[in-house]
Design brief:
Distance between the termini: 38 Å
Structural class: mainly alpha
Number of helices: 25
Order of helices and strands: EHHEEHHHHHHHHHHHHHHHHHHHHHEHH
Shape: globular
Mean pLDDT: 93
Strand order of the largest sheet: 1-4
Oligomer: single chain
Low-confidence stretches: none
Largest sheet: 2 strands, antiparallel
Strand content: under 5%
Length: 577
Amino acid sequence: MQGKIMYQGDVLQAKAMQKEIMDVKAATGEAPLWTNQMFGGMPSYQIWAKYGKNVTTYVIDALKTVFPNPVDTILLYLFGAYFLFCTLKLNNWLAAAGAVAFAFSSYNFIYIEAGHANQAYAIAFFAPIVASIILTLRGKYITGGALTAFFLAMEIRSNHVQMTFYLLLAIAILVGIELYHAIKAKQTAPFLKSIAYLSAATILAVIVNAGSLWTTYEYSKYTIRGKPNLKSETGAVTTGLDKDYAYNWSESVSEVFTFFIPNAYGGASGAPAAEDSKVVKVLTENHVDPAQAQQFAGQLPVYWGNKPSTNGPWYFGAIVFFLFVLGLLIVKNRIKWWLLSAVLLSVFLSFGKNLPFLSDLFFNYFPLYNKFRAVESTLVIASLCFPILGFLALNEVFVNRDKPYIFKNVKLAFYITGGLTLVMIAVPGLFLSFKTSEHQTLIGGLTQAFQGNTQMANQVANALIEDRQALERADAIRTFIFIALAFCLLYIVIKQKISLTFASLAFMAIVLVDMWSVDKRYLKDETFVDKDTYSQAYTPRDIDEFIVRDKDPNFRVMDLTLADPFRDSRSSYFYKT
């Protein structure tokens, strides 16, 4: 609204990667299929390509033309989920509330902030694809099949194969459960007819995107996802990523507490120290200047999981978590077992190296699984399934006439979720250690920084643990308040003191407040910058201006002033790397 632009790291990296392509396109009217300025030369269709014969290209272009970034992505989140909840026969206002619960899941906004635009777009089509498949399985073959073809084509066009792969894993579970019930009910003929329509829809969606899929498959053979040229020390030759690299971003097992307590693991890496930080207090008591103490405390890691870094937690919502548990108790629809199975699979796979038995089984034997890194990303499936089951539970509260039964289970869900949250307020150390696996290394580094003062190093390390506990406790209190609000609202609904429309709007409001306030921690006002600031992201340095004077077309540059020249495309904005 203020005419600012979102400062997205990955989008800026892409801008540098595409510079030569766009320069040639501007000069000739056509984009080249090769660029010399990335990785010593590579096919440009892995960086930018129009795919003008792909009809979905024009749909995406229309969305991006009408709506400014990231409004288009958020509207897709909302409308796709709304369509799914309407398909599941929730009333319109309740469906809208469920759409808000899905759309504002923390990582949907963290991906936007980081500039993972394709990933966010791919996630936005999850819900309408599931809705279309459900319609087809219900016997609406033409409508469901056509919508499946369209939304799946849009999903593939988003060009994030990893997200699409995870969605297909979840859909495979859904189809398996439907097959079981079809056999049990002796209704295999209608089921097979649905599968025929869905298969045709899938073939259509793949054909529409054949250009991007085939070139990606072809090029992948020559990347770290293909067969290596060199054998490992053991002599083994595999096709796929190195396991350590693929598992580098693995969710810690107890990190699941962030599903309902966002700062259970300290929040984002690099977060500034709180004003009432215990670390700052210890440092100032040891005669460190307050400003320096604040700066030093900000350099210490409040995030204490074993991922190298994180932009934030996988927060599904306090209210959504409460409703999800309620759904496990009262939802009778067989879709519950699909949702629970998909959640468990996505959570277990997200553990990666922290649950090697299952992860290695998939990595070594499941087709394509070893092509993808950052296994925590499997949680995108859980982030879809949590609100679905939660709002199916809410719908059950609204329509079920057996109010004593419903209230009994609402109380039980409150005791489980509220009780667990109270434990996390009173004795968080019962489940969480608040120490990284490198805690002793941290103390050693602090001792060195304090010139051998071991006592001060231990004081600061203990204060850091207290800061982490304070962050967790504050959010646990916040979570309990939202769970209690949801419980009170359900009590009023069960007692029939308010209309269902008003109750739906009330849930939409409190869910939005819950989710929005966490999302704002990561997608902040500061993320948006003036256009002048954005345009200066690649202002040439003196050394850049000196290098580009060389008109020899064959020279290449390796810029070791960058943190990692293999992970930073800045050089490619100016010259061949």
